[in-house]
Amino acid sequence: MNPSVELGISFHSSGQEIEMLKVTPIDDQRYRIEENPLFTEMVSFGDIIKLEQQGNIYFYKETVRKSRLRRYSWLLSQDVASSEELAAFKNRVADSGGNWETIFGGMLIINVPSHIDFDPDVEINNITVSKDR
């Protein structure tokens, strides 16, 4: 498998918003997304997308194949973001075959298989309620 690289990707034809994203090249135009974009929910971790290079910018053209993972995201308080309960939750996500990312210290994005035996929204709500009392 090819090593991952960071590319400046625009999901808008104007190229005004460019996001640096880690991707794994599959061929000249297809890439596997290795992290979740912040500026769009059209694609997420694990998707195979087609890009067109124009100078130093790669423009999103289409999603070739969607990942089988479902995406969830939450904005968490610092107490919740640094809690042992959240660390255990992230371990559970990884153990289920999923992926998690924390962005800016408090935005948690997870991608999990649809067959998991827990509800991420309920789990995060329980952690938030217990920590934000």
UniProtKB/TrEMBL annotation:
<dbReference type="InterPro" id="IPR025361">
    <property type="entry name" value="DUF4265"/>
</dbReference>
<protein>
    <submittedName>
        <fullName>Uncharacterized protein</fullName>
    </submittedName>
</protein>
<dbReference type="Pfam" id="PF14085">
    <property type="entry name" value="DUF4265"/>
</dbReference>
